[in-house]
């Protein structure tokens, strides 16, 4: 029997009870990227599905992991479903990120942190392996401070279904006593039983994640693959370029798309100032192409620090003219 029917009086009473116990803040989950949170009206919302897309290698996992990290440092739990990265790899990225936040550009990059873990010639603790890297031990301590709130699920395209995601989130909620922030990296990898086409599988997953976000009263951030290849890096990724069904754009409450600024800035910004080329390569444009709770079609920019497993969080509105396809060659 369908028990979803409710009257408006009940809705008002539930809202009143939630506000009286001081849980109103749980409706909005700040990403930690100030300009993005301003545009989104404070952050991502409980019951909402946000999609994060962009070309391969631009830092979608880095961005999603950093958002989750920003939330757990504020005291909230998070569950990260990783279909492509081992939890230890994500942990190394977090150590790299924390070292950068503590010691700036002089901190060890991701390659040095990874090398410390992969040195099989020595047998020692994590702290000892990191001791020769500036700030790495302090960074590990920072990660330990929130490690009990950050949950990783090593997901598999062969076994991890929507039901698996729901069960893991329910277990996290029971263990922490709080509703967690959920990241799915990435959406097209979620297993859907049956011999469906990619479009149909994508529809099932995106609709399922949206229903789950609503029913569980939590935000879901799902990384989405683009149909564009690396050879098409001079083209701007849009909603219509996302792999799978058109339901992606329809079901989502927020659609965020990363692009390299250099690839999509108008030609005249480079012709009349050749120094701009190198500067633009250092920035990613984050476009809010859909925002059900506010303004959409807004372009922000954040400086890339991918060697440090992060983006700088103090971004700007894009001042330059952007285009969908670069019409010049180097």
Question: What is this structure's SSE topology?
Answer:
Layout: H1 8-20, E1 28-29, H2 34-39, E2 44-45, E3 49-53, H3 60-73, E4 78-82, H4 87-103, H5 110-118, H6 126-130, H7 136-146, E5 150-154, H8 162-176, E6 181-185, H9 198-216, E7 220-223, H10 247-251, E8 254-260, H11 261-264, H12 268-271, H13 276-281, E9 283-291, E10 298-305, E11 310-311, E12 316-317
Helix pairs in contact: 3-4, 4-5, 4-7
CATH class: Alpha Beta
Mind telling me which CATH architecture this is? 3-Layer(aba) Sandwich
Query: Could you name the CATH homologous superfamily?
Result: P-loop containing nucleotide triphosphate hydrolases
Largest sheet: 10 strands, mixed
Order of helices and strands: HEHEEHEHHHHEHEHEHEHHHEEEE
Spans where pLDDT lies below 50 across 5 or more residues: none
The CATH topology name reads Rossmann fold
Distance linking N and C termini: 64 Å
Task: Give the radius of gyration.
Answer: 21 Å
Structural class based on helices, strands and sheet pairing: alpha/beta
Total strands: 12
Helix percentage range:
25-40%
Strand content: 15-25%
Mean pLDDT: 89
- Kindly give the count of domains: 1
Q: Work out the helix count.
A: 13
Shape: globular
